[in-house]
Design goal:
alpha+beta; FAD/NAD(P)-binding domain; D-Amino Acid Oxidase, Chain A, domain 2; 14 helices; binds flavin-adenine dinucleotide
Length: about 425
Amino acid sequence: MRNTSDSNGAYDVVVVGGGPAGAALASFLARDNHRCLILERSKFPRYHIGESLIPHTYGTFERLGLLSKLKRSSFPEKHSVRFVSRTGKTSSPFYFSERIPGEGAQTWQVERATFDKMLLDHAREQGVDIREETRVEEVLFEEERAVGVRAVQENAEPYEVHASVVIDASGGATLIGRQLGLKREVPGLKKASIWTYYRGGTRLEGIDAGETTIFRIADNGWFWYIPLPDDMVSVGVVASPEYLFRETDDRDSVFLGEVERCEPLAERLGQAQLVKPIRGGRRTLAYVNRQTCGEGWLMLGDARAFLDPIYSSGLFLALGSAELAAPCVQEALATGDVSATRLGQFEPVLSEGVEVIRRLIYAFYDPAFSFDGFVKRFPEQRGALVDCLIGDVLGKDMSSFTASLAQMTPPPGPL
Ligand SMILES: Cc1cc2nc3c(=O)[nH]c(=O)nc-3n(C[C@H](O)[C@H](O)[C@H](O)COP(=O)(O)OP(=O)(O)OC[C@H]3O[C@@H](n4cnc5c(N)ncnc54)[C@H](O)[C@@H]3O)c2cc1C
């Protein structure tokens, strides 16, 4: 057994959270013979929002060895994204094949309980130790350095696990961010979301059947429409909490009222049946941490930051941050140098990519901006725009794109 703890019960790496970020990082490390433990508070499969992938996850799936499992799955194939204006004017689809040749232009709309379990099971197959229904209460520090965690299973005594590196992949729970008081709101991005699932909504024909459709509404808000397996569709609204809850605090009435007001969406839903509870609420979605790595610790995925669901970049950044971090963690373990500088070597590449996405998020919420207007004014930037929509932003010079963007919408202040 190569990947179990040493005789003192210590691991090379302990990962808090078995979502996509944690499972992907642990898989990469275990394949390189590192002893990894994932502690996950839920029992998988467990529900999670965030179903739409973008194509630049394809290479990560390939390198993880997950492509064949995804291809065998019942997840709808996604080839494009399309925007519908408030008046019902539909943009032509942004097909990912415009920028990516071959198979990699396709991605999937995933039902997360199944998808996340697939990733976690895959990590187990790579030799990762996984303890589900185990909540991490706290990261243990010796002076500045993280040395392990204290964890607990229901009705049992808490216990400590020691490791050379602690990875916070706890998603929106942001374990280290909360423990060290690092979590911050994002100026100008105060959006909330409410969502649910229908069965029997209209599917488009052929290659468009699995597309994500974005329907714009008042308040610069929008709905997502994401086709899922078994004739299900995920439908959610994003807007400011002040707008959504302007008349009532009742989440269900707010959601159903917005669906009714958004005629092109209501038409798509036609006779569809609402089949799941309505979720979400007033909570502001966006946050960042003012520090994302330290001595012996690193944050990945949503534990680092979450900005906005508009471009479906969450899973891409969870998987991408894991893949970028893996060689840095390997090098730190090999050299015995677990300093923030060593562990966080990948951060500039990740942060620059996230910054491009952040610029486009602010543009989307600027009433003076439209994709059609941007592409008309800067036709040479259409390709770069599609690159953002597919996630091809890591390690690339996007300065000409962001300079053009700045001519139509003011860049947001620094984070
Ligand atoms: C409204 C909304 C819509 C979204 N839509 C999309 C979309 O269409 N496409 C997309 O790509 N992204 C979307 N996202 C974002 C996406 O859901 C996340 O980015 C993604 O789940 C991040 O993966 P992760 O592994 O970092 O975290 P998670 O998937 O949240 O995994 C974290 C894991 O850590 C566990 N955990 C937490 N605390 C502890 C603890 N103390 N001890 C042990 N375990 C713990 C949790 O149980 C969980 O399993 C959306 C987000 C929101 C809010």
